[in-house]
């Protein structure tokens, strides 16, 4: 019985042992499957750090074949330099605590990898640490992505800080997540931490904060970008900003935050206001100027009419003065015919008194009287036509007109012992275009001025020369005298109306003015005063016909 009992006990032990080995085999199979199907590099190490199990990823990372790893310790593979920083974490794991560390490790073959090592203790049924599970993850790509993200954030911050305006991002509750340097300066803060997490109510006066938040709500409610002009208080006074606010959605399209970008439009608005004020003032000045112009046109017309009346009056005065002189010339030219006519009548009276009046004598004396009367009548006709004003410009022979003018003043020049010399060109070679009678009046005025200048000279008598020629499309008449001449200080004034140096002799000062008006305004010519060594010389140019 005892042997049978021992046999049954041994059989039970064998059965239990087989079950344990089967369970262990199953656990091992599950561990191997876990290792091979994991996306990480995995290894199971004994308490001396020797490899019991591992997957292919861990072998590739260590640059060895999977077969070469079994039974090899991790410290031998990495070397003392690389194992030393891991020793503390290993010992902590053997003591029963998990270890997690990130560092750059130089693996066999010289490859440097940034990895995350996780060491987890595995315990036996008795609770003792039996082995260590090592998980290794290559975090180089994650670190590169993190660095790239940090660089991107830094570049974004630098970019936003160089914007010529404010920029910020708020969360859905209106709390600031990011602001650029310009916005910090606007708030009077120096660091982002002084603004981050705060709302407009924390940064601005209540009335301003309310408006800013209302604009935010409108932007988030409509889901579309909006533009607002917002006024921010500051130490230097209020500034106006044109703010473009826009909703920011997340990856699923839900609006979770709000962005704002703005530019300072204070100067622009001030300039626009100044321009509006200037335009208003300009419009007011324009209306005033229009009213002034309306009155000015009337005044100009009045002045033009007044000047025209003045010119006509001066022309009339000039003609009256010329007529007065002509009457003297007529009287001088009629004096001899009248004496001759008186002699005829005296002869007839004496002949009758002495009984000597025969029919033949009567007829001869009557014929003589008729001749004298016809001559006197012709003189009157010459002067009557001379003062008849011209209305239409026409070609005329300047030589003929000048000869007529000279004939009218010849006797007065001779009476004053003044030689009047005319040097005419060949007949028909000095044809001009203009108003012949007015041209003659201008020549008469210049002859009268020359006569006065000669008479002012010492000793009495003198000489006046008249020349006529053609020159580059002009008919040029020159009147020169050897009188007192024209002083340099009054040379520019001699053509002014009523300017005269002969007040004591009854000079009116309108003769030269009217001569200039006739030649330059009525006949489109030119008249100039020259100062030779002796006397004066006037040059008159009128267009050639």
Strand and helix layout:
Blueprint: H1 2-37, E1 41-45, E2 51-54, H2 56-62, H3 66-69, H4 74-78, H5 80-94, E3 99-107, E4 111-123, E5 129-138, H6 140-161, E6 166-171, E7 176-179, H7 181-187, H8 200-203, H9 206-222, E8 226-232, E9 239-249, E10 255-264, H10 266-353, H11 359-386, E11 394-397, H12 398-415, E12 418-423, E13 431-434, H13 436-456, E14 462-471, E15 474-481, H14 511-522, E16 526-530, E17 536-543
Parallel strand pairs: 12-14
Antiparallel strand pairs: 1-2, 1-5, 3-4, 4-5, 6-7, 6-10, 8-9, 9-10, 11-13, 14-15, 15-17, 16-17
Helix pairs in contact: 10-11, 10-12, 12-13, 13-14
Task: Describe this entry's structure for a reader.
The chain is an alpha+beta fold. The protein has helices spanning 2-37, 56-62, 66-69, 74-78, 80-94, 140-161, 181-187, 200-203, 206-222, 266-353, 359-386, 398-415, 436-456, 511-522, and strands at 41-45, 51-54, 99-107, 111-123, 129-138, 166-171, 176-179, 226-232, 239-249, 255-264, 394-397, 418-423, 431-434, 462-471, 474-481, 526-530, 536-543. The chain has a 5-stranded antiparallel β-sheet with strand order 2-1-5-4-3. It is rod-shaped and about 205 Å long. 21% of the residues are buried. Residues 1-8 have low confidence and may be disordered.
Q: Brief overview, please?
A:
The protein has 545 residues and is of the alpha+beta class. 52% of the residues lie in helices and 23% in strands.
Rg, alpha carbons: 65 Å
Q: Which structural class do the helices and strands define? A: alpha+beta
Identify low-pLDDT runs: 1-8
Strand content: 15-25%
Q: Could you report the average pLDDT, rounded to the nearest whole number?
A: 81
Largest sheet: 5 strands, antiparallel
Spatial gap, N to C terminus: 175 Å
Number of strands: 17
Main sheet: strand order: 2-1-5-4-3
Number of helices: 14
Shape: rod-shaped
Helix content: 40-55%
